[in-house]
Protein: tRNA (guanine(27)-N(2))-dimethyltransferase
Organism: Xiphorhynchus elegans
Amino acid sequence: DGVVASEKAKSNNLDVKISKSELETEEKGTEEEPTRESDSNILDGSSDYPRDKHISVQRHLADLEKLADLREDKKKPCPLCPEEKFRACYGHKLRRHLQNLHWKVSVEFRGYRMCICHLPCRPVKPNLVGDQTLSKMGAHYHCIICSATIARRTDMIGHINRHVNKGETESRFITVRAPTSEVIKESATDVQVLPNHSTPQKTDSYFNPRMKLNRQLIFCALAVLAEERKPIECLDAFGATGIMGLQWAKHLRSSVKVTINDCNEKSVTIIKENCHLNKMKVKLNFKEGENDGTVGDGEENTDTIEVTKMDANVIMHLRSFDFIHLDPFGTSVNYLDSAFRNVRNLGIVSLTSTDISSLYAKAQHVALRHYGCNIVRTEYYRELAARIVIAAVTRAAARCNKGIEVLLAVALEHFVLVVVRVLRGPSTADNSAKKIRYLIHCQWCEERIFQKEGNMVEENPYQQLPCDCHGSMPGRTAVLLGPLWSGSLFNTGFLRRMLLAAVQYGLDEAQPLLKTLVCEAECTTLKHFSTHGPGDENKQEECGVYIKTSNTSAESYMVPGKRKGEEVMRSVAKRQKAEHSAEHPAFYYNVHRHSIRGMNMPKLNKFLNYLSEAGYRVSRTHFDPMGVRTNAPLAQFKTVLMKYSTPTYTVGQAEGPVHLPGNDHGAEEAPAAADAKEEDAECPGDDKSGGTAAVSTESHLAHCAAD
């Protein structure tokens, strides 16, 4: 009995304590009710956001209902609407109003809801009069980060996304700690970037890991130029994180004087931090700029990088450089005139264009506006894009009385890279400008040919096309594309030296592409690839000038400024170039585009051998994995493709050429015939079906030939 009595006493004490605590909370609630709107509703004790936030920012719908203090027996006004817009009502109606008008159209950010607010806390244009207009135009959202007022929901979403892209994810009313940075290592170079580094145009430290191949190609081009003359002044006009200039200075050392430029102050700060991270000295061009010390453990490092904060056009107008790289957002045509104004003779200008939608004929009106070029979508659209960019570069160089020699043109999925060497003089400018022509493109068969030189108007321009689609098809079958660059896209000697530089510095991703480019420049297959060219092993011809390779000493390289010696070398090289040099064929054919319906194509490497045996120059191309660059006309291309294709419905026929009169390939047909005999011996009951297949094959080939 005593135990039971003690338990009852304990339970009574607990009940008393609970009732007292409930009474205390009720008294606190009644005391805080009149000041709840002024205190702006704490976000559930969260330390991420301040206590003076707006009342429209809540975490749950229940928190928003607590603001209204819903009671069934009393009418309450909406805490987010003025009285003239929404009158006081009972709890069930006010609950539906808060849910439908405020909560459902809110903007969510990290568990919080920014509800729409109709209170007169947003300034309205003074020409608006009337209570209804004032209440309608006063609807807005309050940003949880910067307390800005935004009228539209879509604008509020974009406003929040801009905060996230800039790394601003905490409220500015409290002490904001710096966003955590990430260190990325590429080619033995460390760069510090923000978490949003992969978002272009919305961050101050844009870094694209997918452009690693582009950076390696540019580094190889600079390494080749550094072998010719030392030291060279090079400019990275759009530094961003400074990764490219840091790689130049870290690997080439005293051979280059690197200048990294950017017009954004935050980017310049990041570039300086990355220089210290890689133990590089920083030289500023500001008035107060003095050389910053190297951040290192007592190591002496003579490598110095100059960091400038200017517009790219301004710095290229003020100073001269041997190597300039342009990599802006989108097109680079706005910077070409400045780049060619002060670039030194026999210097190099490289540019990366990322406006793929216009260059790849997805936005043709933009290509006409930026490049002054009419284009359509073709099977060779990537090479077309490279020739469009080179034509713009040629015109910009010609305006400065300079000519160009194209060393490299690469068009991949995300960018178009063009590397040219600059040749001073009006004569070289005229020769380069003459290589800009229009292209006649047949829209039926995809045949193409550059328009002939001259200003005379022809009666029938369709006669220049090798195909006869205009005579057999109704209407106009061809379009005029351009103006385009009609010259060569590659320099074999320069590409070979780039390959040697890639091997020397261990750039694994660039080596396979450079091998493909060398084969494409020589128009040969990869099995005929060799390290040395067909000419002298110690000399490579570029821009009409013989330049010795790395097998020779540094003293025998060309010295810029000795114009007489350069003119003599150029004249000798031009005579020899006309004797033994041959440019690669323009454009390429896609095998799938010209395949025959109902026929199995041969393997691509075998098809290249078949075209080579037919007496044509042939190679693969980096522009298209299924593309074939050849000097064969389209009709001969289709003939060889049809000859070595097999019907898809034959059962026992092995892969090999189809027998046509006047063609003897006994050595290659013998294994295929032996395989066919073995299969016939294994299946003796299929003779009738085999004969029927042979007859149907001949009829199908005759039908294709007639077409």
Notes: Residues 2-32 form the longest helix (31 residues). The mean pLDDT is 77. The longest strand covers residues 343-353. The CA atoms of residues 388 and 484 lie 5 Å apart.
